[in-house]
Amino acid sequence: MSKKQRSMTIGTLAKAAGMGVETIRYYQRRGLVAEPEKPYGSIRHYDDQALGRLHFIRTAQWLGFSLDEIAELLTLQDGTHCNEARVLGEQKLTSVRQKIRSLQGIEKALDGLVQACSAQRMNVECPLIASLQHGVVQYSETETSGRSNRG
Amino acid sequence: MSKKQRSMTIGTLAKAAGMGVETIRYYQRRGLVAEPEKPYGSIRHYDDQALGRLHFIRTAQWLGFSLDEIAELLTLQDGTHCNEARVLGEQKLTSVRQKIRSLQGIEKALDGLVQACSAQRMNVECPLIASLQHGVVQYSETETSGRSNRG
DNA sequence: GTTGATTCCGTAGCTGACTACGGGAGTAAC
DNA sequence: GTTACTCCCGTAGTCAGCTACGGAATCAAC
């Protein structure tokens, strides 16, 4: 059960984790990964636990968690806060499903417009442009792309 | 067929379009909407065409177009470039469908984890946290959320 | 004719997640 | 023992799409 305990420099660690050195240093500044002690006048060394932490972050990011949320997840890391973790997961799941619904609305609208464009032959007006101009597209106010997608 | 040609100040226009004055001025700087002539020592006035332009931008944004892409769409505005517009629409449609697929993968993974958390009763380890730690979640490398979603 | 809101305009700040730069120190290869 | 890479560290820049600030001019109401 004991993984080999490599001792890596930050560059090696970055390569192993598939990310840049600067990214790791950025996570350190954000407090997401620890900065190991620096031997007197030497260079820091990282072990597989550090690598595991980076995988944790990557996977959580993929699941849609922000770095702030990941920091929160990491405080629950001892595994004894399953309820809290589950709540965070459920919230994320809700927002993911919301995004999917929004995107499906967009897909439908866009598909209709593209198909109308393909069908159009001799008409002067382009259906896609026309619908943007005249507001034919009806969208539900559940934003996904475009403005204020940083909330 | 003639819409009433209101003459609006930028504030009124902003209200009508449901956006802030600063946003409109930002679009002007980006060249997305024109800045009307300013009467000698007076204030600029906007008509319904300007409002239409803002609706165009909003709707295109909702469809997933960036402001740069919208600028491109606006050059096709005369309606005679249906092919070009359709190609842009198809590209966007492809990326929207890609995003949906990614999100569905995420939804599935997250749903599994949340359900495992709900089912878990006396076990010490939280399934969500554990899977982040040990990399149980397998994700396809079609990124949607998280890192480098600014490409 | 004064108060108070709005416009004008340039410039600067915000968010999130990086990414780059620069200069000095440490380390590895030959 | 020199060359060339890598590390360290702080600070600053990037991207997209806004949002805010500040000071002067203009306009609307009373």
Give the SSE map.
2 copies of one chain form a homodimer.
Chain A: H1 10-17, H2 21-30, H3 48-62, H4 67-75, H5 82-119, H6 127-134
Chain A binds a DNA duplex (30 and 30 nucleotides) through residues 9-11, 20-23, 25-26, 30, 38, 41-44, 61, 66-68, 146-151.
Describe this structure in words.
Chains A, B: This is Mercuric resistance operon regulatory protein. Chain A is an all-alpha fold and 151 residues long. Chain A has 2 domains: 10-75, Orthogonal Bundle (Multidrug-efflux Transporter Regulator, Chain: A, Domain 2), CATH 1.10.1660.10; 82-134. In chain A, 58% of the residues lie in helices and 0% in strands. Chain A is built from 6 helices and no strands. The longest helix of chain A is centred in the middle third of the chain and has 38 residues, at 82-119. The radius of gyration of chain A is 24 Å and the shape is elongated. At the A-B interface, helix 3, helix 5 and helix 6 of A face helix 3, helix 5 and helix 6 of B. Chain A binds a DNA duplex (30 and 30 nucleotides) through residues 9-11, 20-23, 25-26, 30, 38, 41-44, 61, 66-68, 146-151.
Outline of the structure:
2 copies of one chain form a homodimer. Chain A has 2 domains: 10-75, Orthogonal Bundle (Multidrug-efflux Transporter Regulator, Chain: A, Domain 2); 82-134. The first copy, chain A, is built from 6 helices and no strands.
